From TrEMBL:
Residues 379-449 form the J domain. It comes from the Eukaryota. Residues 1-24 are annotated as: Disordered. This is DnaJ homolog subfamily C member 7. The keyword Repeat applies. It comes from Sinocyclocheilus anshuiensis.
Length: 494
């Protein structure tokens, strides 16, 4: 059987020489790393510090140098690991403790940072730099505390303010950035929130909180299908993410209820659609954009059900949620037109036309302005008590009735003020009949023109019109003169 011979005469001096050579070589790598560090070529500095560590893995300063390089490359978690390794090897390594504390601070771990800075003060009580860093850690803790209280109060602007202040010394803290982004989304500042979340995901594509915020922005912008995809992805990365779970459930419920309402509306089941939109509005009060659409949809249904005042109120709620929602302005303007609130309609159509200068919007505005102008004139149809499609016979019948009702002789026993009022009404009845019984004048009146401005003869005598109807054979006749006094009249039947 073959035997294996072992050389048991190892030379201690040879091992010592070998260790010294390794240390010299490692020092050479460190010096080269220092040269590249001064030149700000941190990638090359990292390579040489790593070579030094590979040769002498128990040298604390090498880890400290590489930690400094990681920090310059904004790789703070790796810098933290090297700093921690450095102080494990040498608990008196001040720069190691300082860098560990700084990494904790940049990553938002203020309590851990404070412990590191306190260790530095034990080793160097007069270190002014670390005293300032301790103050930064204390300010972060205070802003965290205030942000937590503000979030519970739904004061999201204050939370954003606190996170901005905290991120000044803790610029690499994803937790602070995500909280800021979430509050920006809750404030409706979606592009800003998306930007913050996207920055985080570029550095860490598995960050469940950032995925949740991206989904939240899409959800609040009424892109519900895409939002659900992000919520599901967030839950894959963090199965216990309760906010993502709740948002996903709300998104699905809101979409389903809204689609049910749309289906009922298309089928003409307006009462059912109204109720479904109302139920959808209770699902998530924070979803501003979707709720604005739901209010506008309910307003459309309300107008179909002749609930015009309710429809106006729903449009107003939609506009309050989204001041740029053109469809809500148009719907409310139409409801104002239907309820003859023309000034309000003009105001809404002006808002729409200022935003979207289309031919259609211009015509809607002109029509509302015309109706407003017409509403400020005497309403001859109302004076006679007829509708706009009254026939010639209906106009005559209405005139006879109103003329007899307001003739001054009918009110001879009334007060002077009442007599004056009735005389005015009597003249208006004659004026109304004069215009509406003349096809040309009626057409001009209906189109909103001022008849007096159109050189149309508007001179008439109310008494002459009255006599034309009631005087002579076959009609009623008032006879009287200035000496006989008002009230002396008789009916003559033919």
């Amino acid at each position: 059987m073959a035997t294996v011979d072992f050389d048991s005469s190892a030379d201690p001096e040879m091992d010592l020489t070998s260790d010294e050579e390794l240390e010299r070589e490692a020092e050479g790598f460190k010096e080269q790393g220092n040269v590249y560090y001064v030149k700000k070529d941190y990638a090359e500095a990292f390579n040489f510090y790593t070579k030094a560590i590979d040769l002498c893995p128990k040298n604390a300063s090498y880890y400290g140098n590489r930690a400094a390089t990681f920090m310059m490359l904004s790789r703070y978690r790796e810098a933290l690991e090297d700093s921690q390794q450095a102080v494990r090897l040498d608990d008196t390594f001040v720069k190691g403790h300082m860098r560990e504390g700084k990494c904790h601070l940049l990553l938002g771990n203020a309590m851990a940072a404070s412990r590191c800075f306190q260790k530095v003060l034990e080793l160097e009580p007069d270190n002014s730099q670390v005293q300032q860093e301790l103050k930064n850690a204390e300010s972060i803790l205070e802003f965290e505390r205030l942000a937590e209280i503000s979030f519970e109060k739904r004061d999201f602007r204050m939370v954003v303010f606190c996170m901005d202040r905290a991120l000044e010394p803790a610029s690499a803290c994803h937790r602070f950035k995500v909280l800021k982004a979430e509050c920006l989304a809750l404030l409706g500042r979606y592009p800003e929130a998306q930007s913050v979340a996207s920055d985080i995901l570029r550095m860490d594509s598995t960050n469940g909180d950032a995925l949740y915020v991206r989904g939240l922005c899409l959800y609040y912008e009424d892109c519900i299908d895409k939002a659900v995809q992000f919520f599901i992805q967030a839950l894959r990365m963090a199965p216990d993410h309760e906010k993502a779970r709740l948002a996903c459930r709300n998104a699905k419920a809101l979409k389903a209820k809204k689609e049910e309402g749309n289906k009922a509306f298309k089928e003409g089941s307006f009462e059912e659609a109204y109720d479904l939109y109302s139920e959808a509005l209770t699902i998530d009060p924070n979803n501003i954009k979707t709720n604005a659409k739901l209010y506008c949809n309910r307003a459309t249904v309300g107008s179909k059900l002749n609930k015009l005042e309710q429809a106006i109120e729903d449009c107003t709620k939609a506009i309050k949620l989204d001041e740029t929602y053109i469809k809500a302005y148009l719907r409310r303007a139409q409801c104002y037109m239907d309820t003859e609130q023309y000034e309000e309609a003009v105001r809404d159509y002006e808002k729409v036309y200022q935003t979207e200068k289309t031919k259609e919007h211009k015509n809607l505005l002109k029509n509302a302005q015309l109706e407003l102008k017409k509403s400020k004139r005497k309403d001859y149809y109302k004076v006679l008590g007829v509708d706009k499609n009254a026939t010639e016979d209906e106009l005559k019948k209405a005139y006879r009735k109103r003329a007899l009702m307001h003739h001054p002789d009918r009110h001879s026993g009334a007060s002077a003020e009442m007599q004056k009022e009735e005389e005015k009404k009597f003249k208006e009845v004659g004026e109304a009949f004069t215009v509406l019984s003349d096809p040309k004048k009626k057409s001009r009146y209906d189109s909103g023109h001022d008849l007096e401005d159109d050189d149309m003869n508007m001179d008439f005598d109310a008494n002459n019109i009255f006599k034309a109807f009631f005087g002579g054979p076959g009609g009623f006749s008032f006879e009287g003169n200035s000496s006989s006094g008002p009230g002396n009249f008789f009916f003559q039947f033919g």
